[in-house]
Specification:
Keywords: Disulfide bond, Signal. This is Thyroglobulin type-1 domain-containing protein. Pfam families: Thyroglobulin_1 (PF00086). It comes from Cryptotermes secundus. There is one protein chain. Strands 7-8-9 form a three-stranded antiparallel beta sheet, covered by helices on one side. A hairpin with a 5-residue loop joins strand 14 and strand 15. It has 357 residues and is α+β, with helices and mostly antiparallel strands. It has five helices and 17 strands. Among the domains are: 61 residues, no CATH class; 86 residues, no CATH class. The structure holds 2-acetamido-2-deoxy-beta-D-glucopyranose (NAG) (3 copies). One 2-acetamido-2-deoxy-beta-D-glucopyranose binds next to loops.
């Protein structure tokens, strides 16, 4: 029955033909089910099946940025944009990813947007020296980074997937992401193991029960040994399993010690020692004297401390005592400039700046 959807309707200004899907006035071009974003024609965007008559993924025509629009015409501005009622043209929604991209909002990076959302890979600075980071859809940094010059294969698909699974309520996800947020080769989760394609996570082997992990072609005895979970995460997953068990019996969580792991299974940058929080390297060892009191832990990210340890003198910025970047920096001649939480130029990052988003 779906070929009925496939009527090609050319959307010219004001004339947009019959409804293709009952109740939906958008046009679908071209007339096929499409799985590849790059195959959509100009000025259209891939939409999931849920929006295309619940039948298959397809391309929806949109009016582009600055294109003429009519609030009631039925053809929408592209995702992240809205029809400005005074100017009757498509403008970025205030404070959206597109708004920041269109308005040179940050000094050292132009956000990449994906519909309304932030794209997974965001690169700051300039190509030879800059760095790319994994971001969630809302624009928060998540696990995974790489020098821009080496980031051609970076997808952040693993970091994104773990976060989405956790947001859906799965507390005990054990997928392993590599340092750039892609998939490690060997994956185990929820009692099953498989070999994964690095960029997409697609299984490229049989999927076996965890106790048969060593049969997989990507299993490497020297690196993995007998246990898939790494030191930090085995502690974390043990806690999570108890939490899940206790929640099933309506018991309150016991007071577990603080455990902070990265998605590659290593220790996170912020660690606890009694009443003190400190900045740690991947093996939990302290990075110099960077520390803060327990009550200040929410503001602590240790990104400056970690970067200094990783890149040495390449990082000239001053760190705060808690290991974060100091947002206010000064050049040798005393000129003030501002950097964001990742140490990149950003005029909006100083405490006294008048940020509107
Ligand atoms: C896409 O949009 C741009 C800007 O609105 C317009 O100039 C161009 O003709 C459009 N292309 C197609 C194929 O409709
Ligand atoms: C990206 O992937 C290709 C193909 O696997 C590989 O040849 C290339 O070295 C990779 N680039 C980097 C920077 O790792
Ligand atoms: C200070 O140095 C910066 C570059 O580091 C330069 O742009 C600025 O003009 C200098 N200011 C003064 C007062 O010399």
């Amino acid at each position: 029955m779906w070929p009925l959807v496939l009527t090609l309707v050319v959307a010219t200004t004001g004339a947009y033909g019959a409804e293709v899907c009952p109740g939906l006035k958008t046009m679908y071009l071209p007339p096929q089910c499409i799985n590849d974003r790059d195959k959509c024609p100009q000025n259209s965007t891939l939409e999931p099946a849920s929006k295309v008559c619940n039948m298959c993924d397809g391309c929806t025509a949109y009016i582009q940025k600055d294109g003429e629009c009519e609030p009631t015409s039925g053809i929408s501005c592209k995702p992240g944009y809205e029809c400005d009622e005074q100017e009757l043209k498509c403008v970025a929604k205030s404070c959206s990813c597109q708004y920041k991209a269109d308005n040179s909002y940050y000094k050292s990076w132009t956000p990449r947007c994906d519909g309304f959302d932030y794209a997974p890979v965001q690169c700051k600075g300039e190509k030879p020296t800059g760095r790319c980071f994994c971001f969630d859809k809302k624009g928060n940094r998540i696990f995974g980074e790489q020098l821009w010059a080496n980031a051609e294969n970076m997808t952040c698909a693993c970091s994104r997937q773990v976060q989405e699974l956790q947001d859906q309520g799965r507390k005990d996800v054990t997928l392993h992401c590599n340092e750039q947020g892609n998939y490690e080769e060997l994956q185990c989760d929820d009692g099953l193991c498989w070999c994964a394609e690095e960029k997409t996570g697609k299984p490229i082997s049989q999927i076996l029960p965890e106790n048969m992990m060593i049969m997989l072609p990507c299993y490497d005895k020297l690196n993995v040994g007998s246990a898939y979970l790494r030191q930090c995460e085995s502690l974390l997953i043990a806690q999570k399993k108890i939490e899940i068990e206790m929640a099933a019996h309506n018991s309150r969580n016991p007071n577990f010690p603080y455990v902070n792991c990265e998605l590659d299974g290593s220790y996170g940058a912020v660690q606890q020692d009694g009443n003190q929080m400190y900045c740690a390297w991947k093996d939990k060892s302290r990075i110099e004297g960077y520390a803060a009191e327990l009550r200040d832990m929410a503001n602590m990210n240790c990104r400056c401390a970690r970067d200094k340890k990783m890149y040495g003198n390449l990082i000239q910025h001053i760190c705060l005592g808690n290991g974060n970047y100091n947002h206010e920096q000064y050049t040798n001649n005393g000129t003030r400039y501002c950097v964001d939480a990742d140490g990149f130029l950003d005029d909006n990052a100083c405490p006294d700046s008048s940020v509107s988003c």
